[in-house]
Amino acid sequence: MPRFALLLAAGLLACAAQAQATSFVMTTDALAGASVGVSESTSDLSSSFGDDKIVLAARDDAASFVASDGAIRGARLEAALRHIRERAPQLDADDRQLARAILVL
């Protein structure tokens, strides 16, 4: 009986390890996919707005916006988002992506 219990425990451990590895891979893939849009927005923003005073002044508001999951929208962030969209209408990014890109500048 002890040998059967050991084999059963080893089998359960192997199943648990496989499930955990699969979960990690799926989480990593999801995060990587989400970061692609942010990195594309960041590269476009940094090349165009890296020294823009309106955008740089919005960094604190952008941090609050990201940290609050969009609940806090400061006036400087609103001005920066409007400014970015007027000067670069080709950017296909939502407010969260742009706020994260502002933080990277």
TrEMBL record:
Keyword Repeat part of the UniProt annotation: no
Protein name: Holliday junction resolvasome, helicase subunit
Key words, A-Z: Signal
Signal sequence extent: 1-21
Pfam families: DUF2388
UniProt-listed PROSITE patterns: PROKAR_LIPOPROTEIN
